[in-house]
Design a protein that fits this description.
The protein has 78 residues and is an all-alpha fold. The protein contains two helices and no strands. The protein has helices at residues 6-20, 22-46. The radius of gyration is 36 Å and the shape is rod-shaped. The termini are far apart.
C-alpha cells in the first residue's frame, strides 16, 4: 500500500496527457523556464555595481605646495 506500481504510474501519465494534452504541458514548461530565466536576470542586474563614481581628488605630493611653518609659532620644547 506504500508505493505505486508501474501500472499506476502509466495510468496516471495517460490521464494527465488526456486532460492537458502534449502541447499544453510543453507550453507550461516553456513559461516556467522563461520565469526562471527572468528571475536569474533580475538577480544578476541587482548585483551590478553602481554607475561610475566620480574620481577622487588628486593627492598633493609636491613639497613646495605645502605651506612652511612659521618659526615664531613653532613649538620647539620637545
Amino acid at each position: 500500500m506504500g508505493s505505486f506500481s508501474l501500472v499506476h504510474w502509466a495510468v496516471l501519465i495517460i490521464i494527465v496527457m488526456l486532460l492537458f494534452g502534449r502541447g499544453r504541458i510543453s507550453d507550461l514548461m516553456g513559461d516556467f523556464a522563461k520565469g526562471i530565466n527572468s528571475f536569474k536576470k533580475g538577480l544578476a542586474d541587482g548585483d551590478a555595481p553602481p554607475a561610475a563614481a566620480p574620481p577622487a581628488p588628486p593627492l598633493v605630493t609636491n613639497a613646495s605646495a605645502v605651506p612652511a611653518a612659521d618659526p615664531a609659532t613653532t613649538d620647539v620644547r620637545r
